[in-house]
Amino acid sequence: MDLLQFALLGLGVGAAYVLMGQGIVLIHRGSGLLNFAQGGIALVAAQTFKLVRDDWGVPAPLALAAALAVAAAIGAAMQLLVLDRLRERSALVKLIATLGLLTLIEGVGVVLWGDSAVPMVGILPTDPVPLGGGIVVGADRLCLLAIGVALTAALWFVHGRTRFGTATSAVAENPAALAALGHSPARIATLNWVLGAVLAGLAGVLLAPITGLSVTALVLSVIPGLAAALVGRFSSYWWTLVGGLGIGVLQSEIVRFWDVPGLSQSVPFLVIIAMVVLRGRVLPARGEVSARAVRVGTGALRPAALVGVVIAGGLVLAGASGDWRLALTNSALTGILALSVVLVTGYAGQVSLAQLTIGGVGALAAANGSARLGLPFPLAVLFGTAVAVVVGLVVALPALRTRGLQLAVVTIGLGLAIEALVLRNPGLGGGFTGLTVGEPDVLGFSFDYLAHPVRYAALAGVAFLLAALALANLRRGPTGRRLLAVRASERAAACSGVGVLGAKLYAFGLGAAFGGFAGALAAFQFPRLDVADYTTLGSVTLLIQAMIGGIGYVGGAIVAGLAGAGGVVAELLSRVGESWTDAVILISGVVVLVNLVFYPDGVARTFAEVAGHALDEVRFLRPRRAGAERPPTAHPAARAERPTLRVEDLTVRFGGVVAVRGVSLQVRPGEVVGLIGPNGAGKTTIIDAVCGLVPSTGRISLGDTSLAGLSPRQRTRAGIGRTFQSLELFDDLSVLDNVRVAAESRDRRCYLLDLVRPRAIALPEVARTALTELDLTGVLDVAPEHLPAGQRGLVGVARTLATDPSIVLLDEPASGLDDEARAEIVRLIRHLAEQRGLGVLLVEHDVRLVAEASDRIVALALGEVICEGSPAEVLSHPRVVEVYLGSDSPVQPAVVGGAE
């Protein structure tokens, strides 16, 4: 009976999670965003309700109305004042905006209400309701369940059966098209934010009597809400209901039957992981390429300026008083933690909300190594760093199958699980008294902070300096280029020969090493370890503060360090007034929201530009870059004989839809094969299948080598090169570096060497020849985004040729070009085939261009081959005529080309 009893109790809590999740789904359907501040809105509503009802004596219904009105106002303000101004920015920037709102509300809560749980009387009846068989459930739990089901049904009806629901779905899919139909995307998005915030407010008022009125508990209630919404794919209200109720039941059963500290809090994370494993993809689908996240720094060093900074820092440290010395030490250690955020999120584009908790693992491991294993200080620090790396790689595993907003959900859930199961585990942390660590000394030279604060502070400062130099080195080398390529487009990176999975694992692993190293050092700052500051919300704050500084710049980590817990900013505020110390989080939330609107790339970028121009005027202060801008030529062995691409009985299915059925074709060396067909015929899908980007059946071989089971990177190395219709260039890299990514992708030594001394790997002759033939030598240092459309396309071709392919797959190379540029494309294609002996598979809507460039043409309709032959034969074939013109007149290339 206990099983059923606790399941019913869990349904009540789960219903509150349902309300939280339904609000998240509602906002996502109306704007495409995930509102991580949903729990914060719930907190404000619950506090408002308690204030109005208990302190002002207003009747409960009116107090509830006031609480929901406040929640609605927060939702409307967020959309109108912040998100509407960020509508052209990437999903990452908008995500951080919601995290900024969460941080702002958390800061307000800490300042106004503290973080102790306060009991609150609910608005629902709590009388026991006997259900038979000795099972008794509170009336409030049954009411919560009824409210959750009723609101789910209402939302399903509104969004599935009304014009407003249709418009809501359309605004996230294509706001421009919706506006063309006479609807206001901004108004619809605002209304959905208001409704979603109201649901959050209602969840907060109903959940607070169960969890207690606590800042942390209510703010983090967004995590089970996110997990429930993930079950519903952020779109289905009914599946979100199932997810929320299921999480509530699982938590309740675990509390009853498993006495494992923190396990019940980890249930949302387990649900999230299950969804990611079942639904994730190793590479994103076509069309998932996101807008640029944030700009990144160059990593260029100015040795003379660096020496000056070191000398100035030493003088400041030597003259600082005790409080300031402690603040500088804390800032240096937090800065190392923030470097991990710059690496993982800024460079690699992987949103991680678990970096501070990973640092906590490093601190806990180092302390245990010292206290229980008897490791000396240096080995204990290395041990803590190594354990953190292992945890970081575990965090990275979900990133191999998801990305973007869903990855943020995964990492915040994992951060909470680490906090609950590991950092709050009394068996690991030494209980209430904590762990006593050994004295930090190296070969008898003590770094004990209490006895030698200057030494320890200097150690922390040097550690930050070395970590920052390593990250700047990495940015300038091949590793930095690979990470930025993965951030820009995982598909294009994979088809350029970059190991996407390896790059992600490397970023998370090295980021965890930075975090674990900082935590391990911090563990020895005082005699007893305290991991209370290593929290999930602290990870969010760390990300926010790095974003303020510039999450793509090493300087962003400096700003985050200064603003970190117990850092320089906190010390400055304490001089204003002791109560201002707790306002750091609040100020961070305000600043990041303002920053995202006016300086979305962070203050470090602005400072770097202004200071850089000034320092460039002084010769010895100019930056030193890695390698020459024109690397020396290498001469790899040429391919003895280029193989033939054979595609036999290729079939591609997406669920129940057959996109390509039984297609067979060949592309021989020195031959151009055109692939034509109307939209939806399966042309690009065939290219994706040949590259390994979509699963397929049939046989694909290159010469005598079957490509079955090979990843996109392995197929590129085998000799398959491709361009993309959407180009998918790496816009944070120069033209030369776009080509370098493909040319350098076979060298793995740089993952270690770049941390110490990045170098420019010799550009192969084939890549240099491509740059010359495509007339790109004059724009090598220009970012592709600043080039005209025609040259951007040529950059994609040059990047493809840099992989030294045998077969080139060109996907819409003439898209958006004028007649003169199209003629140049034809000449280029014939040159690749006739002069370089490459086999070319050309996909293009411009039939005239295909006819001029191709030796043979394969025509498709509805995923099947309808005819194959010479251009003249195919274009006069009755089926081709019918498909293109719907008549029995022969297809004239000029007419069809013009129509396209």
Automatic annotation (TrEMBL):
Pfam families (alphabetical): ABC_tran, BCA_ABC_TP_C, BPD_transp_2
A GO MF term: L-phenylalanine transmembrane transporter activity
Keywords: ATP-binding, Cell membrane, Membrane, Nucleotide-binding, Transmembrane, Transmembrane helix, Transport
UniProt xrefs under CDD domains: ABC_Mj1267_LivG_branched (cd03219), TM_PBP1_LivH_like (cd06582), TM_PBP1_LivM_like (cd06581)
Residue span(s) of domain ABC transporter: 645-887
Membrane-related topology note: Multi-pass membrane protein
Subcellular location: Cell membrane
Source organism superkingdom: Bacteria
Alphabetical list of SMART domains matching this protein: AAA (SM00382)
GO terms under biological process: D-alanine transmembrane transport; L-alanine transport; L-isoleucine import across plasma membrane; L-valine import across plasma membrane
Transmembrane segments: 6-26, 58-83, 95-114, 134-158, 188-207, 238-257, 263-280, 300-320, 326-346, 377-397, 404-423, 456-474, 505-526, 546-573, 580-599
Protein's name in the database: Amino acid/amide ABC transporter membrane protein 1, HAAT family /amino acid/amide ABC transporter membrane protein 2, HAAT family /amino acid/amide ABC transporter ATP-binding protein 1, HAAT family
Lineage: Bacteria, Bacillati, Actinomycetota, Actinomycetes, Pseudonocardiales
